[in-house]
Structures are given as structure tokens and as C-alpha cells.
């Protein structure tokens, strides 16, 4: 059956779970007359909750290692210390990317009132709001002694901007570690001496910069701790999540569809592909965007397979769909695997891969990955239907 | 194999109960507010959906996402590594389109006096006209107050709004209260405001369905005008004629609260500059009126700051966002409310149906039978709503009839029920009660309805 444009685009986006009752047939709706949600759904949801808790715990552990490295660097700035902090950031970031599939349904990460996504992962980063940039040596909070540098004051400054957050989170730390990316071939090259106050220092307010890096890293630990705790066994959110396994599975699907379609294939890849903006990429200071994409796609596959960082095996959505329609489950399994292959062959750095003629290797590989993710998201909607969940979309 | 999705391409929430036979719809297909660009979505994303008839094409779909991205993402201070998104300000009202048009929806005035404006802005002018016949800017401040600025550049002003309550009563004795806004401007950064300054508050309208309004043939809109009330019905719709920077000529005004914008491209480039400080080919100069020296020397984010392909993508996005379909349109009380809407004379300006041009630029928008409930004309709504600030041909008491489609979902999407040009009405009933001028007779007929009839009319509006 040819896919209609509407269905395709909707499926790229995200999903709305239908009412919890069994669908009935009405004039406009010709959905299945009776569809019973598989009992296995309870195990699938439980395994997911366990996995989310494990994955956030892993990110927290790795972020704590990053904090240790940052603290060491801040106490005695050195080239080796900066390199250690960068390496720790890259490692922790990879783990964080796999948790982004836990977004898009108003869970602890992006609950409308208490969600921390905006202060953890805000993008784009308003560098000049934080520190000096080329052409403006005294820009930013770091160079403005009127601004206090504490976790609370930075979060307050975030809110001052109105709707977005620009002063904290992964990309603020990334900017402080790498600096602006002025290089066509490599990442930003901030010298460690930006953190040196005495002779040899390369930027003013090194003391405030050290303070800022420490505070903003600590704030990330606070936020990640809250996420881990919200998903811990017995925690209120986890309990409420598991109260209705059909709703829970709907949320899992929504996260997968929204991340794979509108977010990853749409905002994070197709925009950069179309605009060819060298720095129109998420981890633009560190040139780590290719890894962001891989870890996001892997996060989707994790939920599909029930594979999380705790290493234990359990049932994923694949098992649930397979129970109803094995051929469909196998097709989607293959498509998700194909997406993984496709994102893995995008040649880094991403900001170079988007450039050139459409026939260039980088661009053909990105296009193939976008199309693979769209195909996968199309099929995900079919898979949802197979387990009695109607998926719709939003494109924010 | 997917389940069949019905004629609309998408099935959403499914009812829990089987309805008894509904009465036949009064009008076939009336639930399709946007024709083939209708979506049935009652969630927070009701205004954010692409047209169901959007072409299945890699590049076109990407274009939607590019537009969506530049509508949603923040602009940042220049210079920045994110070169494609820097150049905010130097002065501005918001850092992204979506800040005010949240979820592609409608803005609102602040609820607390101490709250900063977001989704509400103040246009200003002094008597006279500019070179193109539009409002004449205020010396030192220009045509719009920017209450925010990048670091190192002063913001123009501090803005506050409070409410003055006034009582009234329906004919059956039921009392109501209306809240008139009172604006306070303080800390003018570039000298005292001139005593003859005129101020026009405007909230951000929803942005879906706009491509369909743009695709209405000019001749048909103009044909609806009755400037001298030749038919003697007390209603004299007038067209606005405004400057189109793209054509370099005067043309029909369609968008904005006073129909002061000719096209979505002009509207969008105007908002990029006026609201966010982002220059474009059509609006190439930073918004730094004479005397704002720090503004004038601040670093910019390129010339222009948003390039043509991006502004075209944003414009495509605003053209192709789908219109929410109706809910409960077959219910008797909604059908009755629709009858009241007509009987009261509301439909004389809030024209229910139109058909878009067969030759619209975007194929998806061609030949669509739509139900926006607007005539896109200017009407005098009386002193109560007047801003006293002319805008091209619009007088200080004229407003363009706003479309009503999707209005019943404002609360769902934007978590408020603030209506009219400045968001003063706190409910749809208050919005009706504020109508005066040409609409005074209709408002009086509304006040004369029984409580049940008023409820039916409001149920109809909620179903849009």
C-alpha cells in the first residue's frame, strides 16, 4: 500500500495514545472494532521502567566522573586536565543520547511544570550570553561581575530569557570546555589558559570561568540525580507510569516516534541537511554531533529490544508486536537495524558531511539516514496499531 | 496493513461510547474547517500539524521542518557559533516566533502586573504617515516598543498592564464584569514619550490556516466590502490598502489585527525585524532608531541575518499548518448555536465560507472550500475597543475581522482563554460583549438571549 504523504509526515512526528477504552467504530473512524491490548504489555512496560532507571543511573555515574575531572581541572588548570574533562564529557554525552527516547510524553525529563530538559539540553547555545566570543571579548555572564555565579542564579538567569534556557546544561559545559568552533575540520580549541588567572592567562575573569564551569557541572548532576530518582523502584513517577500498561506502552511508542521522526530525522538532520550551516548541529563546539545521532537512534533500538545498560535481558516492544504480527515485527526490526547502519556510516564531523553537492558521500549518507528513520517511524505507527494503540502526531 | 483512516487521512481519539443516531448535519462537510487542510486533533498539538495533503516529497517535507525549526528555535546574540541563528536584537520583544505564538497558537497578556510581556506587544506612532502611508514612527523609538535587549544595549521601555473592571448585565439580569486593560510605560530609555503618542496593543494570533487566507482571491474579498453601507444593514466593511515591500507597491491588506500586512512573507519578515530584531532581504536595516547609539553599533548576525531560503521555509511553514476540524458539530445545541450566530448577525462579518483560488502558488492550497469565519475586512468596533491609532486606511476604531476557526481549542493549546486584539476578553462571552460600533446591534441581541441560548451560541464557538 503506498504511503500517503499525510500518513508519512504524521508518522515522522509523534504519537497520541487513544482513549484507554477499546475503540469503537464511528462514522469517521474505521479502526478495528475490538482490539485487546496484549497482556505481555505489562512486562514490556515494567522492563522499560527498569531500563530507564538503569540508563539514567549510568548517565549520572558518568557525569559524576566528568564532575571529578572538571573539579580537578578547575583546581589546577592544565592541558591534560582539560583533555580529561573533555573525554569525560564525550563519554557521558554518549550515554545521555540514549536516554532522549525517554522524552516527548511529559515524563520526568520534560514534564510541563517540573521537567528539566530545558536546563539540561537546551540548544542552540547563546555563547555570548555565557562567555566571550570572537569579536566580543567581554561578553557574557562570566565577564559581568554584576551577575552572581551560583546554581540558583544561573537557573534564574535562564528564566529571565523567557522561554528557553541558555546558561546551563550539556552544551554550556561543552562550550566552556571546547570554546567556539572556528575550525573547518576540527572542534573548538579553547586553551586551558582561559582558566588561568596568573601569568599566561588568555582571557579575563578566569576565576569566574572556573567557578561557572564548576557550578554548571554540579547543576547537571543535580538534574540527572532527580531523573534517576524519579524512575527508581517505588518512586512516585515510576509507580504512576506502570499503573496502566497500555498507556505506558503508548508513551514508549510516542517517545520512539517523536525522537526518530520529527526530532532526529526532522529538526536535527533535515534542517542541517537543507541549510548546510556548518554549525547547525547539536554538539557544535565539540564536533560530536555524529555521536549524538548514533546514540539517539540506538536509544530507539534499545526500547524496541528491551535492551538497556543494566545488561539484563527482558522483553521489549519487539516481543509485544511479534505476539500479534510477527512479520510486521520482523520488518520493523530490520528497518530499525537499517537506520542504525545508516547513521553509523555518516562520516564525521557532521558539520562537514552536510556540505557539498547532493551527490557527495556525506550528503547521500545523511539523506539515506533521514529516509531510513522516516521509514522506521512509518512502520512504528503500524506496529502500534497492531497492539491496539492509535498513534497520531504533533510537530511542535 | 494500516487500518483505513477515513476520508480525512487521520483518525484521532476514539469515543468510548457508541453514539445514538445523530441528527443529520445541517451542512455537509461543515466540520472540514480547512478543506483538505483539516486535521482532527483535540490535543495541545491541534494547531501544530502539517497539512494532511502535503506532498510526500523528501525536499518538501524537509522544508516544513526547516520552517518549523526557524519558527521554534531561539535566536541568539551575535556573534555565535550558530551562525545561522544569531543576530538577536539589539532590541526585541521575544527570542523566537514560538515564544509568543506558543504551539503555533495565540498569545495572551500577562496575568500579573509584575510579569514581563510575552505574546503581547505595543505598536506606537505619532500623528501623520510615513513614506508609504503607514503609521509614522515615534522619534527615538520607532513603530514598536521593544522591552528587551541584548547585553550592553538598553531596552526601550518597561511595560506593565493592569485591569480596570467594569460591570454590566445581560437583559435577563445576569451580571457580568469586563476587564479593560490599562497600560503603564516607565523607564523610557531615549527621552520622554511625546504627548501625542498613540499606542496600540496587539497579542500574537494563532498561525495555522494562514496559507488558505492568503489564497483567497483579492477580487472576492474586495467584492465583500461595503464602505458606505450601501445595503443599509449597519455594517460597512472596508478594505485596507497597505505597502507591500516585496512588490514595492500598495496592495490589499490581509493579515494583522488591522489588516496592515499584505502577505505572509511581508508579515513574517516584519515580525522577524520588529519583534526579534532579525534582518532579512525585505527588511534589511536593524531596528535602531536615531539616537539609539549602542543599538546602532552592536554586532549583527550577517546581512541579512535570516537568509531568503530560511524566511521562505518559515513562510511555507505558516502557509501549510493545518486547520483543526470541528468537534461536536452535529450536536443539537451546537446546531442551535450556529443558528443564533447567523440570526444575531455575527456571520455578516465573520463570513463562514470561502473557496480559495484555483491558481494559488502552493498546490495544496488550491480550490479549498474553507470555513474561516472572517471577511478579512475592517469594521468599526466602537470606542470601547478603539486603540485610536490609524494604520494605513484603518482608523483608530477599526479592526479586521479575525478568523474564528480553531478558537474553541485555545484553552487546550495555550492554556488560556484571552481573546480580542489585546487579549482583554477573559472568555468568548466577554469577547462578544466588548463588540461595539457596527457590531453593537449584534452584541445587544446577544445580551437579550436567554441563558440557554447564550450557552448554545458559545457551544457553537467552542466547536469551531
Précis, in short:
Chain A is mostly helical. Chain A is built from 15 helices and no strands.
Topology:
The complex is a heterodimer of chains A (396) and B (464).
Chain A: H1 5-12, H2 41-75, H3 79-97, H4 117-121, H5 127-130, H6 151-160, H7 170-178, H8 206-230, H9 236-241, H10 245-275, H11 289-305, H12 317-324, H13 326-344, H14 350-353, H15 361-386
Chain B: E1 38-39, H1 58-72, E2 91-92, H2 97-100, E3 120-129, E4 135-136, E5 148-149, E6 158-169, E7 175-186, E8 198-203, H3 210-214, H4 218-223, E9 241-244, E10 249-252, H5 264-276, H6 293-297, H7 308-320, E11 323-324, H8 332-343, E12 354-355, E13 369-370, E14 378-380, E15 398-400, H9 410-414, H10 428-434, H11 440-448, H12 451-463
Helix pairs in contact in B: 1-7, 5-7, 8-12
Could you explain the architecture of this structure?
The complex is a heterodimer of chains A (396) and B (464). By secondary structure, chain A is mostly helical. Chain A has a single domain, classed as M75 peptidase, HXXE motif (A middle domain of Talin 1), CATH 1.20.1420. Chain A has helices at 5-12, 41-75, 79-97, 117-121, 127-130, 151-160, 170-178, 206-230, 236-241, 245-275, 289-305, 317-324, 326-344, 350-353, 361-386. In chain A, α13 packs antiparallel against α15 (361-386). Chain A starts with a helix and ends in a 10-residue tail after the last helix. The model of chain A is unreliable at 1-32 and 161-165 (pLDDT under 50). Chain B is α+β, with helices and mostly antiparallel strands. Chain B has one domain. Chain B is 23% helix and 15% strand. Chain B has 12 helices and 15 strands. Chain B has helices at residues 58-72, 97-100, 210-214, 218-223, 264-276, 293-297, 308-320, 332-343, 410-414, 428-434, 440-448, 451-463; strands at residues 38-39, 91-92, 120-129, 135-136, 148-149, 158-169, 175-186, 198-203, 241-244, 249-252, 323-324, 354-355, 369-370, 378-380, 398-400. A 3-stranded antiparallel β-sheet of chain B has the order 4-3-8, with no helix packed on it. Chain B has a two-stranded parallel sheet with strand order 1-11. In chain B, a hairpin with a 4-residue loop joins β9 (241-244) and β10 (249-252). In chain B, α1 crosses α7, α5 packs across α7 (308-320) and α8 crosses α12 (451-463). The two termini of chain B are 33 Å apart. At the A-B interface, α1, α5, α10 and α15 of A face α1 and α7 of B.
Amino acid at each position: 500500500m503506498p504511503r500517503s504523504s499525510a500518513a508519512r509526515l504524521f508518522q515522522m512526528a509523534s504519537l497520541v495514545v487513544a482513549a484507554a477504552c477499546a475503540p469503537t467504530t464511528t462514522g469517521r473512524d474505521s479502526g478495528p472494532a475490538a482490539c485487546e491490548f496484549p497482556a505481555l504489555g505489562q512486562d514490556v512496560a515494567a522492563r522499560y521502567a527498569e531500563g530507564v532507571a538503569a540508563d539514567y543511573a549510568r548517565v549520572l555515574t558518568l557525569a559524576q566522573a566528568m564532575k571529578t575531572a572538571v573539579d580537578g581541572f578547575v583546581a589546577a588548570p592544565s592541558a591534560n586536565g582539560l583533555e580529561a574533562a573533555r573525554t569525560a564529557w564525550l563519554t557521558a554525552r554518549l550515554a545521555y543520547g540514549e536516554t532522549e527516547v525517554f522524552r516527548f510524553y511529559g515524563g520526568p525529563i520534560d514534564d510541563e511544570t517540573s521537567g528539566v530538559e530545558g536546563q539540561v539540553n537546551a540548544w542552540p547555545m547563546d555563547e555570548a550570553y555565557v562567555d566571550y566570543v570572537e569579536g566580543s571579548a567581554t561578553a557574557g555572564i562570566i565577564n559581568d561581575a554584576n551577575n552572581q555565579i551560583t546554581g540558583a542564579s544561573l537557573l534564574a538567569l535562564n528564566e529571565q530569557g523567557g522561554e528557553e534556557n541558555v546558561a546551563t546544561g550539556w552544551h554550556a559545559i561543552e562550550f566552556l570546555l571546547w570554546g567556539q568552533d572556528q575550525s573547518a575540520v576540527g572542534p573548538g580549541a579553547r586553551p586551558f589558559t582561559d582558566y588561568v588567572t596568573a601569568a599566561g592567562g588568555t582571557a579575563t575573569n578566569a576565576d569566574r570561568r572556573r567557578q561557572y564551569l564548576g557550578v554548571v557541572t554540579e547543576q547537571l548532576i543535580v538534574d540527572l540525580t532527580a531523573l534517576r530518582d524519579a524512575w527508581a523502584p517505588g518512586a512516585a513517577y515510576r509507580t504512576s507510569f506502570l499503573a496502566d500498561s497500555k498507556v505506558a506502552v503508548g508513551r514508549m511508542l510516542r517517545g520512539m516516534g517523536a525522537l526518530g521522526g520529527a526530532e532526529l530525522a526532522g529538526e536535527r538532520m533535515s534542517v542541517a541537511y537543507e541549510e548546510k550551516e556548518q554549525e547547525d548541529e547539536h554538539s557544535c563546539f565539540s564536533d560530536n554531533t555524529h555521536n549524538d545521532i548514533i546514540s539517539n537512534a540506538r536509544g530507539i533500538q534499545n526500547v524496541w529490544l528491551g535492551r538497556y545498560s543494566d545488561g539484563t535481558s527482558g522483553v521489549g516492544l519487539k516481543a509485544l508486536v511479534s505476539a500479534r504480527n510477527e512479520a510486521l515485527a520482523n520488518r520493523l526490526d530490520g528497518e530499525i537495524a537499517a537506520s542504525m547502519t545508516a547513521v553509523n556510516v555518516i562520516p564525521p564531523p557532521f558539520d562537514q558531511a552536510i556540505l557539498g553537492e547532493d551527490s557527495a558521500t556525506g550528503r547521500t549518507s545523511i539523506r539515506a539516514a533521514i529516509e531510513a528513520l522516516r521509514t522506521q517511524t512509518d512502520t512504528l505507527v503500524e506496529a502500534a496499531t497492531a497492539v491496539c494503540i492509535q498513534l497520531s502526531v504533533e510537530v511542535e | 496493513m494500516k487500518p483505513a483512516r477515513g476520508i480525512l487521512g487521520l483518525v484521532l481519539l476514539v469515543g468510548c461510547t457508541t453514539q445514538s443516531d445523530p441528527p443529520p448535519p445541517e451542512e455537509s462537510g461543515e466540520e472540514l474547517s480547512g478543506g483538505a487542510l483539516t486535521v482532527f486533533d483535540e490535543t495541545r498539538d491541534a494547531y501544530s500539524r502539517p497539512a494532511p495533503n502535503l506532498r510526500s516529497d523528501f525536499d518538501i517535507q524537509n522544508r516544513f521542518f526547516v520552517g518549523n525549526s526557524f519558527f521554534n528555535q531561539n535566536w541568539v546574540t551575535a556573534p555565535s557559533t550558530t551562525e545561522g541563528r544569531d543576530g538577536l536584537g539589539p532590541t526585541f520583544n521575544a527570542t523566537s516566533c514560538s515564544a509568543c505564538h506558543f504551539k503555533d497558537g495565540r498569545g495572551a497578556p500577562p496575568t500579573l502586573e509584575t510579569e514581563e510581556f510575552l505574546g503581547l506587544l505595543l505598536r506606537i506612532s505619532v500623528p501623520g504617515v510615513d513614506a508609504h502611508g503607514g503609521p509614522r514612527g515615534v522619534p527615538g523609538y520607532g513603530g514598536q516598543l521593544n522591552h528587551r535587549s541584548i547585553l550592553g544595549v538598553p531596552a526601550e521601555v518597561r511595560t506593565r498592564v493592569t485591569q480596570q473592571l467594569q460591570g454590566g448585565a445581560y437583559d435577563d439580569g445576569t451580571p457580568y464584569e469586563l476587564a479593560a486593560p490599562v497600560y503603564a510605560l516607565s523607564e523610557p530609555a531615549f527621552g520622554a514619550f511625546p504627548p501625542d503618542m498613540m499606542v496600540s496593543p496587539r497579542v500574537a494570533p494563532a498561525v495555522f490556516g494562514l496559507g488558505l487566507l492568503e489564497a483567497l482571491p483579492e477580487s472576492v474579498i474586495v467584492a465583500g466590502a461595503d464602505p458606505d453601507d450601501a445595503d443599509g444593514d449597519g455594517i460597512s466593511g472596508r478594505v485596507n490598502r497597505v505597502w507591500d515591500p516585496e512588490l514595492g507597491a500598495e496592495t490589499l491588506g490581509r493579515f494583522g489585527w488591522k489588516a496592515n500586512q499584505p502577505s505572509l512573507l511581508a508579515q513574517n519578515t516584519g515580525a522577524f525585524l520588529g519583534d526579534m530584531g532579525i534582518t532579512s532581504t525585505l527588511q534589511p536595516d536593524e531596528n535602531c532608531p536615531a539616537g539609539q547609539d549602542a543599538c546602532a553599533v552592536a554586532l549583527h548576525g550577517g546581512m541579512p541575518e535570516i537568509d531568503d531560503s530560511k524566511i521562505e521555509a518559515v513562510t511555507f511553514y505558516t502557509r501549510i499548518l493545518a486547520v483543526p476540524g470541528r468537534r461536536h458539530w452535529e450536536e443539537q445545541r451546537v446546531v442551535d448555536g450556529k443558528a443564533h450566530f447567523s440570526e444575531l448577525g455575527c456571520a455578516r462579518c465573520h463570513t463562514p465560507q470561502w473557496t480559495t483560488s484555483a491558481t494559488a502558488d502552493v498546490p495544496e492550497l488550491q480550490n479549498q472550500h474553507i470555513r474561516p469565519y472572517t471577511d478579512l475586512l475592517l469594521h468599526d468596533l466602537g470606542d470601547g475597543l478603539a486603540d485610536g491609532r490609524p494604520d494605513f486606511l484603518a482608523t483608530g476604531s477599526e479592526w479586521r475581522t479575525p478568523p474564528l476557526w480553531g478558537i474553541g481549542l485555545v484553552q487546550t493549546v495555550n492554556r488560556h482563554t484571552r481573546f480580542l486584539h489585546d487579549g482583554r476578553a477573559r472568555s468568548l462571552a466577554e469577547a462578544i460583549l466588548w463588540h461595539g460600533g457596527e457590531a453593537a446591534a449584534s452584541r445587544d441581541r446577544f445580551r437579550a438571549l436567554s441563558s440557554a441560548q447564550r450557552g448554545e451560541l458559545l457551544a457553537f464557538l467552542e466547536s469551531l
